[in-house]
Specification:
The structure holds 2 protein chains of 2 kinds. Chain A is mostly helical. Helices cover 78% and strands 0% of the residues of chain A. Classes of the chains: A mainly alpha, B mainly alpha.
C-alpha cells in the first residue's frame, strides 16, 4: 500500500507540473500577447508597454516561467490586472463557497442515489421490469439535461413560481441558515444530474453482484432480503461506485461554474467567467490551475480509497 | 433483428471482419429506430428551415413581441418579436455542425495517435500518454473554457476548443482497444503463419476498433453539443445575434417570468438530440456486439 501510494503521489506531482506548464505556455500562445489582447484597442504605445511590464511580459519567457513557478509554490498569486485586488484574497473568499456547494451536492447525491440504484437493481433482479424501466429511463433523461437548462427550469418553478428559494441575493457564510437556504437551489440542480449518474452506476454494479453465488448462499442462510441487499450486495458493489464518485467530481466542478453563474453566487466559477470576460489572464491562469489541481487531487484520493477497499489488489 | 448469430463461429467471424453499421443494422435495432424517429424529423426541419413559410431567424417583428406559443409561432416569440422556433432550428444547425465536426476531429486524431501509442509502445507510448494524462487532469468544460479564452469566441474556435478537450479521451480509448486483443486466439493464429506486425495491425487489430469508436463518437457528438450550448450560455461560445441553442436560452433568462418559452423550448430540443444520440450509440453497440444484447 505504501509503495503504491508513493508511486501514485509521484505521478500526481508529475501531472501537476505538466498542468502548470501547459497552462503557462498556452496562455503565452495568445495572438499578439496577453497584454494587447487584454487592452484591446484601448491602450497603445507607452501605456501598453507599461501594462506589459506590470504583467511581467517584457522579461525572457524562461524567467517568467521560473517566477511563475516560484509564485505558485509560495502561494503568491499576485493581483488581478483589471481591478488590482489580491488574487489570493479573492480565492480565499470564493473557495469555501464553491466547496460548500460541492460537498452538499455529494452528500445529497450519495444519500439518494445509492438506495435508489440498489432498489432499481433489486426490481430488475426480481423481474419487475416496468418499475425498473421507469427509474432507469428517468435517470438517463435527467442525466442528459443540460445543467444550465435544468437550473433555469428549477429557477422558474421553485423560485419564481412557488417562491420557495431565493434566486439571488447576498451570499455570506456568517449566517449558516441563510447561506444554506441561498445555495439550496443550486445544490438541488447539481444533485439531480449527479443522482442520475450515480443511480445508474449503482444499479449496474448491484445487479451484477445479485446473480453471484454468495448472494444465493446468503439468502439460503435465511438472511432478510434487506440485509442481503445492503450488507452483502451493496458492500461488494462499492468499488465501481467509489470510482464513479471520483470521476463524476469533474462534471460536478463543471456544474458549479454554471450554477454559480446563473444564481449569481460569488464562487470560483463566477470568478472564472468574469475573469475571462474582462480578459484578466492572471486571474484566469490561477483559477484554471487551481481547478485542475483540485480535480487531480480528488482523483488521487479516489484511487487510494479504491485500493484500500479492494482486498484482491496486491501491493 | 437484422442479423442473428446462431453459432459462436459466425459471431467470431464478425469480430474479425466488422462491417460499418449500415442502415439495415440500425433499422433492426429498437433503440436505434427510436433515435432515428427523433433525429430524422429534426434533421429534415433544420435542413429545410429556410424553405418553410416562416420569418427569418434574425427578422424582428415589433407587433409580435413575447407572444406565447401559438399555431403561428409554435415556440412563441422573444422580446424583439423573433420567432423562437426558427431561431431554435438555426441553433440546431450550429449544434449539429459542432457535434459532428468535434466527433470527426476527435476520432481522426484519437485513432492516429492512439494507434501509434499502442503500436510502437515504449518511449512513444509513454510520451503520448503523459501528455494525455495532463489534458485529462482538467474537467472537460473547464478545459474548453480555458481554451476559448485563448483561441477566442465564435464557431471555429469553439469547435477547436471542444475537440482539443476530446482528443485525449479518444487516444486513450483507441490505445486500450489496440492493446487488448493482443492475447486473442486469432492474433496467435495469425502470428503462427508469420503475419507481420503491420499486417496484424492493419488487418486484425485496427478494424476491430471501429465499432467501439463509433459508439464513443456518437456520445462525443452529444457531449460536444452540450458543451457548445454551455459555452454559448456563459457568453463564451457563439455570440449573438447568430443564434445558437445556448445563447437563445441565455437571452431568455432575463424574461424567464414573463416569457418562459424562450429558454425552455430550445432546452427541450437539446435534450431530444442528446437523448437520441445516446440511443444511437446504444443501438450501434447492440448491433455490432452480440454480447451487449440482453
Amino acid at each position: 500500500m505504501f509503495t503504491y501510494s508513493l508511486n501514485r503521489l509521484l505521478q500526481l506531482v508529475v501531472t501537476t507540473l505538466g498542468v502548470v506548464t501547459l497552462v503557462f505556455f498556452t496562455l503565452r500562445l495568445i495572438p499578439g500577447d496577453a497584454a494587447s489582447a487584454m487592452a484591446g484597442d484601448t491602450l497603445s504605445g507607452e501605456a501598453l508597454d507599461r501594462l506589459r511590464e506590470q504583467m511581467g511580459l517584457n522579461k525572457p519567457i524562461w524567467v517568467q516561467y521560473i517566477e511563475y513557478l516560484q509564485n505558485l509554490i509560495t502561494l503568491n498569486f499576485g493581483e488581478t490586472i483589471t481591478t488590482g485586488l489580491s488574487i489570493g484574497g479573492l480565492l480565499s473568499k470564493a473557495i469555501p463557497i464553491t466547496l460548500a456547494i460541492a460537498v452538499a451536492t455529494i452528500v445529497l447525491t450519495i444519500i439518494i442515489s445509492i438506495p435508489l440504484g440498489t432498489l432499481a437493481a433489486y426490481l430488475a433482479h426480481k423481474g419487475h421490469k416496468t418499475l425498473d424501466n421507469i427509474i432507469t429511463g428517468g435517470a438517463m433523461l435527467v442525466d442528459l439535461m443540460p445543467s444550465f437548462w435544468t437550473a433555469l427550469v428549477f429557477l422558474l418553478l421553485f423560485s419564481l413560481t412557488l417562491g420557495l428559494f431565493p434566486a439571488s441575493g447576498t451570499v455570506s457564510l456568517d449566517d449558516p441558515a441563510a447561506f444554506l437556504h441561498r445555495i439550496a437551489l443550486p445544490v438541488l440542480v447539481l444533485s439531480v444530474t449527479q443522482i442520475a449518474t450515480m443511480a445508474r452506476i449503482t444499479r449496474t454494479a448491484v445487479l451484477e453482484i445479485l446473480s453471484e453465488d454468495y448472494i444465493r448462499t446468503a439468502r439460503s442462510m435465511g438472511w432478510s432480503e434487506l440485509r442481503v441487499l445492503f450488507r452483502h450486495a451493496l458492500k461488494n458493489a462499492a468499488l465501481p461506485i467509489v470510482t464513479v464518485v471520483g470521476l463524476s467530481f469533474g462534471s460536478l466542478l463543471n456544474g458549479t461554474i454554471i450554477v454559480e453563474f446563473i444564481f449569481t453566487i460569488p464562487g470560483l466559477g463566477s470568478l472564472l467567467v468574469n475573469g475571462i470576460n474582462s480578459r484578466d489572464y492572471q486571474l484566469v491562469q490561477t483559477l484554471i490551475v487551481f481547478y485542475a489541481l483540485f480535480f487531480v487531487s480528488v482523483n488521487f484520493f479516489t484511487d487510494l480509497v479504491y485500493k484500500r477497499l479492494d482486498p484482491r489488489v496486491q501491493f | 433483428m437484422a442479423i442473428t448469430f446462431t453459432t459462436p463461429a459466425r459471431a467470431s467471424f464478425l469480430l474479425r471482419m466488422p462491417k460499418l453499421p449500415g442502415l439495415k443494422f440500425l433499422a433492426g435495432n429498437k433503440k436505434a429506430r427510436l433515435a432515428l424517429i427523433i433525429l430524422v424529423p429534426i434533421l429534415l426541419l433544420t435542413a429545410f428551415a429556410s424553405y418553410l413559410p416562416l420569418q427569418g431567424p434574425l427578422q424582428t417583428n415589433l407587433r409580435a413581441m413575447m407572444q406565447e406559443p401559438s399555431f403561428l409561432h409554435p415556440f412563441g416569440t422573444d422580446r424583439m418579436g423573433r420567432d423562437v422556433l426558427v431561431r431554435t432550428l438555426a441553433g440546431v444547425q450550429v449544434s449539429l455542425f459542432v457535434g459532428f465536426s468535434v466527433a470527426i476531429i476527435a476520432l481522426v486524431f484519437g485513432v492516429v495517435l492512439g494507434t501509434i501509442a499502442g503500436f510502437f509502445g515504449r518511449t512513444v507510448d509513454r510520451a503520448i500518454m503523459s501528455v494525455v494524462d495532463i489534458f485529462l487532469a482538467f474537467p472537460s468544460l473547464l478545459l474548453a473554457i480555458g481554451l476559448v479564452s485563448v483561441v477566442g469566441t465564435g464557431l471555429v474556435p469553439v469547435i477547436l476548443a471542444i475537440a482539443i478537450a476530446d482528443v485525449p479521451r479518444f487516444i486513450r480509448l483507441q490505445r486500450s482497444l489496440v492493446l487488448s486483443p493482443r492475447s486473442r486466439a486469432y492474433i496467435d493464429a495469425a502470428r503462427t503463419v508469420k503475419a507481420s506486425q503491420w499486417w496484424l495491425m492493419s488487418r486484425h487489430i485496427v478494424p476491430n476498433t471501429i465499432a467501439p469508436l463509433l459508439v464513443a463518437a456518437s456520445i462525443a457528438a452529444a457531449n460536444a453539443i452540450l458543451v457548445e450550448a454551455s459555452l454559448s450560455f456563459l457568453g463564451l461560445g457563439i455570440m449573438p445575434p447568430s443564434p445558437s441553442l445556448g445563447n437563445i436560452i441565455r437571452d431568455g433568462q432575463l424574461y424567464l417570468q414573463q416569457a418562459w418559452w424562450i429558454s425552455t423550448m430550445p432546452g427541450v430540443v437539446i435534450l431530444a438530440i442528446a437523448l437520441s444520440l445516446h440511443f444511437l450509440s446504444d443501438g450501434i453497440r447492440e448491433a455490432l456486439d452480440p454480447r451487449a444484447r440482453k
